[in-house]
Amino acid sequence: MRFIPSCKEVSELLSQAQDRPLTLKEKLALYVHLPLCEGCRNFSRQLGFIRSAVKRYIERDDTPRS
Ligand SMILES: [Zn+2]
After folding, report:
1. Per-10-residue mean pLDDT, the chain, length 66
2. 12 CA distance to ligand 1 centroid (A)?
3. Taking Cα atoms as reference points, which of 30, 38, 33, 28 lies closest to residue 13?
4. What is the Å distance from ligand 1's center to 53 Cα?
5. How far is 13 from 17, CA to CA, in rounded Å?
6. Which of 29, 43, 52, 58 could share a disulfide with 5, CB 3.0–4.6 Å?
7. Whole-angstrom Cα distance, residue 25 to residue 41?
8. Up-side HSE of residue 10: CA atoms within 13 Å toward CB?
């Protein structure tokens, strides 16, 4: 298994993260790729991925998603 996932894999994971919780392995893939890749960072920002992920860690926010 490659350690750094491709942009295609990352964008797919980001899309899937909207619909289901990611596994630890999948999150790890994002966290190694995103700091290295501005394109995927921009994409994840558009999806609000980082904000919601960080928010979950910081606030433990249980607000249900509509
Ligand atoms: Zn990328």
Report:
1. 81 89 91 92 81 63 62
2. 11
3. 30
4. 18
5. 6
6. 29
7. 18
8. 26
